[in-house]
Design goal:
- The protein has a domain of 269 residues: Single-stranded right-handed beta-helix, Pectin lyase-like (Pectate Lyase C-like, 3 Solenoid).
- The protein is mostly beta strands and 396 residues long.
- The protein has a ten-stranded parallel β-sheet.
- The protein contains three helices and 31 strands.
- The chain is globular.
């Protein structure tokens, strides 16, 4: 067990080194072939269903849109810009009111579906939050693409969004300014909190293989009736409130929220909310947690939490061994009826999960979105969490 713990620590260090990666060059992307490769027999397969779907293909650049067929969990129907044209970002500048062609904002606000890729390595410092229109994919594969040191991504009242292979960090509040939302409309935007990715009243969303750290508020927040979301293969580190799922205890519309959190690596210097849940159904499956300052998984307002096949490694602090935390009034035992379970999780260095509610598998049917792998196999998949370095003509 000690050797296994040492191996996981080494993985954590390796991911950090890979996430801030050197520049890579790729050729201009070509159109997607609708013929999906048969990759079942490739030796590169790891058991991670997302990665095994596309990463064995040496022609991944040509077949970029195949990614849209690889989603798992509750957000599996998110197709992003699969049915649209490829749009290439050539310009890292940002004009929130009148964005110019070639910029990320110009592509993100278009009415038609678009698969957005990047011509080169880019650091994009947005002047106002990037407001996205429906049926968009932001695909950073092949380059070092950062959105940082300014407002970041807002997903409001839209559907079918994929965000893949982007490094998002040091996001700050903004708002009370005019921002263009579509090609024909610019309006006043209220203040934002400084989230890395802010999701509001949206559905069919997939956030995969991104690296997120050091934002003013949450790294990923989903509220106000958002639904059918998968957050997978991401690397989170150095942040306080990582992920909020659910608007407030009084906003009962979030009771239908369904979110899958799978194959993520929760790295060093994270404090809490991995995630914090309200009302809905949350499948937390095959993630690795390498310590937490307060707690890892928390919630209020009777969320159902189905934790399966995760690895929880507590810090050496004897006061932070518990994985879970319930927000409830002092002396109120209502939380004991909330359905929270730990199924085949591995607990290391004294970590423990406080279960509650019904123990029968039938109580978690609605909170299940995929088949969990044994937690002991995660050492084969965890080192590829976060933004990837993919070379043209090679398996990624």
């Amino acid at each position: 067990m000690a050797a296994f713990l040492f191996y996981l620590i080494m993985i954590s260090n390796a991911i950090l080194a890979c996430s801030i990666r050197p520049p890579r060059q790729i050729s201009e992307a070509t159109e997607w072939s609708s013929t999906r490769k048969q990759l079942e027999n490739d030796t590169c397969r790891t058991g991670n269903p997302v990665d095994d779907c596309w990463r064995c293909d040496p022609e991944w650049e040509t077949n970029r849109k195949m990614l849209a067929n690889c989603a798992i969990g509750f957000g599996r129907d998110a197709i992003g810009g699969r049915d649209g044209e490829v749009y290439v970002v050539t310009n890292s500048s940002d004009d929130p009111i009148n964005p110019v062609p070639g910029t990320l904002r110009y592509g993100a606000i278009q009415d038609d579906p678009l698969w957005i890729i990047f011509e080169d390595d880019m650091i994009i410092n947005l002047k106002e939050e990037l407001v996205m229109n429906s049926y968009k994919t932001i695909d950073g594969r092949g380059h070092n693409v950062e959105i940082s040191d300014g407002p970041c991504i807002g997903i409001y009242n839209v559907t079918n969004i994929i965000i893949h292979n982007i490094y998002i960090h040091d996001c700050i509040p903004c708002g009370n300014k005019t921002v263009r939302e579509t090609p024909t409309h610019a309006g006043m935007r209220g203040a934002s909190d400084g989230d890395g990715i802010s999701i509001y009243a949206s559905k069919d969303l997939w956030i995969d293989h991104c690296t997120l750290t050091s934002c003013n508020d949450g790294l990923i927040d989903a509220i106000f009736g958002s639904n059918y979301i998968t957050i997978s293969n991401n690397y989170f580190f150095n942040h306080n409130e990582v992920m909020l799922l659910g608007h407030s205890d009084d906003f009962v519309e979030d009771k239908d929220m369904q979110v899958t959190i799978a194959f993520n690596f929760f790295g060093h210097d994270l404090v809490q909310r991995m995630p914090r849940c309200r009302h809905g159904y949350f499948h937390i499956v095959n993630n690795i947690y390498t310590g937490w300052g307060k707690y890892a998984i928390g919630g209020s307002a009777n969320p159902t939490i189905n934790s399966q096949g995760n690895i929880f490694i507590a810090s050496d602090d004897n006061f932070t061994k518990e994985v879970t935390k319930r927000e409830n009034f002092a002396g109120d035992d209502e939380w004991k009826s909330w359905n929270w379970r730990s199924d085949e999780d591995i607990m290391l260095n004294g970590a423990f999960f406080t279960a509650s509610g019904d123990t029968s598998p039938e109580s978690y049917v609605k909170a299940s979105s995929m088949v969990a792998r044994p937690a002991s196999l995660l050492n084969n998949t965890s080192s590829s969490a976060g933004a990837l370095s993919c070379k043209i003509g090679q398996q990624c």
